[in-house]
DNA sequence: AATGAATGAGCCTTCATTCAT
DNA sequence: AATGAATGAAGGCTCATTCAT
């Protein structure tokens, strides 16, 4: 549902915008949000002016990056609605969200921000995700696969935390899997 | 082991140094490391010049803050050596580290940094902690209280991650406890 | 004497040029010359490119605006040549020039600039005005209606100054009239 | 009545502040407010940082310049209270204000701004001036030296306008005097 | 001819760090 | 030792102007 107010955008402009988003995503997640706008522009092969034409503020750029990530997650979690087994669906979703944010420190912050938040633009996609998570959690709990005392806030916090934990083990997939097992097992009723 | 090169430090100088560390700890953890040095100095009731006399660099100040926190943790975990029950000792230590870092986002980073690191000054205290964690982990595993396949890196990552998760639930102690339960239960052998 | 080098200009191009001049006049006089070119173009319903096709420089646009205003004044003052009573003609002209520039701060500057100047394009129309003012002043002085010691520079300065004064009283026509009376009376021989 | 909240200011700091104000006054009035802050700092022999330490904003610097000018005028006009002859006092004041602003285009704007205004800091000094002008005007009118129908707004507008007019004749003191005569004579009752 | 995206020099402002007092 | 004024390199952002479409 990409709104009404947007005009088609010329081919090259769209390409530049996309490049900027890609570069910014990469740079922000690997080196933090302190990277100068000028460097991002250069890495995207455009001038600063172009960056600021597309994103009126550095913060707006960051927001756009986060929105895109949240939307990607929302799209993926939506696919899990098809899964018939609620427990299966829930755990697949947990993995998916973690993996999406794997290796991206900033994203943990984005998700965290989604918990409280202030930026209007993030509200919509994060609400979508929250709604889906809530549904999946409920299903899994009804199926007896997840502790009943856990609520949505705890789930979100665990997602962010597990993501953060896995980032530290970046180079070692087996260790990451072990961590994920710990958390997933911990979610089950005692 | 406070080295050899340091001279006694006049009483007021020592007081200033301590105040700066306290204020910086508070400020860095609650508002991030972006807070201007001048503001820290003012909050500590000294001039910037004094701050830079004690800590030649902003980074040095941050480092000192982290060292102090790590040393505090090391001191506490050391006390747990006395605990006869290895499982008990391990879980108490886990809680302790988490609680120390609870509410302090930056500290999670400090711990994370302790995993890889670059700053020489952090090496020593973090090595101490690592050694103690390794010993406690080993004891708990021998006692059959913790999964055998987990290594020290996974433990550290889980500590950082759980700390991060609990920060999101700041205002809700019960929810925090539920999260901690999930992880602690997950650590147990299946 | 609209030179030789200009080709006829397509109908729509001429319309755009006129619109740009109108908008620029309005915008420059009400909000100052600091308004971005892009905004002027948008208000005129064209792209920036079009603006710069018609006026190679922002300064050129400002110049064109001023030339048009000067020419309008020159045209009006020319009509006063018909007036048989020299005193009448002079005072009418004074009022006219003031009223033309009333409410347009920038125009006062334009007139001021006409006194010294640098822009070649302004020279011609301002010379025309100056010549007419000189003639009217001379007539009024011969008729004994204006102090003999006043020269053209003083007249121009008074025009600009009175215009500036009246701008401050924008909302109060009666007060403006009172000011004008002061100056007009002051012009008379003691 | 320079408030209570200001601390004494070190000797060199005071010197720098004064130099900055002097330079800014000169530069703003001769070349407009568009001059880069960096240039002002350089001309004052300090770094930009120093400029911004003393004046947190370019606008604050401009404001300080204007306040100082207004206060200087207020101080001078206050001296005229001693003058026994009301007509004499009024005309002296008129001259004085004009001469203070002579050659300083921006100042006309400051006075104009004093008419409407928004900046709190300018309010006080401009109110003082207005009050004094009002008193002098009233005295002169009672003495029959100035037209009764003129109010304070008209007086202020005439001051600004006359100042503007005289700026155009900068190099020619005799011509300036002639203009002033015109206005002063015009102020008298017909 | 018109369009509007792209460009990049330049501006205001911040802040870690130095140094005169 | 302490102070806080001074410094200047960066950084975010604007806008006149150019150029591909």
From TrEMBL, chains A, B, C, D:
Keyword hit for Cell membrane: no
Keywords: DNA-binding, Transcription, Transcription regulation
The HTH tetR-type domain, residue ranges: 14-73
DNA-binding region range list: 36-55
SUPFAM superfamilies the record matches: Homeodomain-like, Tetracyclin repressor-like, C-terminal domain
Family annotation (InterPro entries): Homeodomain-like_sf, HTH-type_TetR-like_transc_reg, HTH_TetR, Tet_transcr_reg_TetR-rel_C_sf, TetR_SbtR-like_C
PROSITE patterns cross-referenced by the UniProt entry: HTH_TETR_2
PANTHER family, alphabetized: HTH-TYPE TRANSCRIPTIONAL REGULATOR BETI, HTH-TYPE TRANSCRIPTIONAL REGULATOR RUTR
Protein name: TetR/AcrR family transcriptional regulator
